[in-house]
Each structure stands twice: as structure tokens, then as C-alpha cells.
Amino acid sequence: MRTLEALRSALSEGGPDALLEYLNNGVPHRYTAVYRFDGDLLRNVLLRDKLDQIRPDFLLAVPFKHSFCQFVLRDQVFRTEDSRQDRRLDGNPYQGVVISYHSVPLMLQDEGTMWGTLSHFDMHSVPLSDEEFALLQGAAGLLGPHLRQLDR
């Protein structure tokens, strides 16, 4: 059973990278990522890829107005197992490119403002259980105090 305590342990032993690795190892999604809001862009600051490949350029920075993260900002969470079938994404240029996307906000604890997002995503349709989504939400809370160090 995957737990918040195991996440806490991964974070204390190996930092945010270890937390992402723990999260990614427990889901079928290829990617688990942290994105930071930066004006009109979202910038990738941490990425865990199950295939351990070099981060593709199109994941480095995403225009906010085209990102699925805009819906996390608006609704506080966003989940879709198949963006091709999700009418909320009609007209979005990433609809049908990023197929599966499950994301939660990352909040700066001292300010209470949204700093970015923590997401599982894939280019294939991949389900995410409610338990794993709750673990993703818990991980976002644990990452809060570490966000400033990711602002490099």
C-alpha cells in the first residue's frame, strides 16, 4: 500500500526528485512533473520519465493559454483519462497530444498563492485511481516548503 508517510520518507531522504520518482513508480503514466508559472509560460522544473529519456523540448516550456494547467488554476484540480474525448479541451492544441493528464496545484506555503502544478501525464489513455490521485494531492502539500529551492 502506497502511503503519504512513504512519500514523506522519500522526500526527506532524497528531496523533491525522490518524491517524483516514488509517485511515478506507482502509476502507469510515463511522466510525473512539476511545472512552475512564469508569466505567459509554464516551465518544467522537475520531470520523471519512466523511459529515462532526455526531456523532449516541447515539455520544457508550454504557453499557459495552451496548457492543461490553466484548468488546474481555474478549478484547483484537473483530470482527464482521454483528452480526445474531453469536451472541456475542445480547440486546445494539446488535445489529442497529451492524452492522459491528472494534476493538482502547488501552493507557496508562506504566501498561499499558486506556484505551479504537480502532474501525471501520458501520450496514451491511462487511468488514475482515486487513491493515487489523493496521493498526488498529498505530495503537493509536502512539496510546498520545497518550491522556492526549485526556482533556480
What features would you describe in this structure?
This protein has 152 residues and is of the alpha+beta class. The chain contains four helices and six strands. The protein has a six-stranded antiparallel sheet. The radius of gyration is 14 Å and the shape is globular. 33% of the residues are buried. The mean pLDDT is 93.
Estimated radius of gyration: 14 Å
Q: Which structural class best describes the helix and strand composition?
A: alpha+beta
Number of helices: 4
Secondary structure: number of strands: 6
Which descriptors would you attach to this protein?
single chain, 152 residues, alpha+beta, 6-stranded antiparallel sheet, 31% helix, globular
Q: Quick recap of the structure?
A:
The protein is an alpha+beta fold.
Topology, element by element:
Layout lengths: L3 H22 L5 E8 L2 E9 L11 E3 L5 H7 L2 E3 L19 E9 L4 E10 L7 H14 L3 H4 L2
Antiparallel strand pairs: 1-2, 1-6, 2-3, 4-5, 5-6
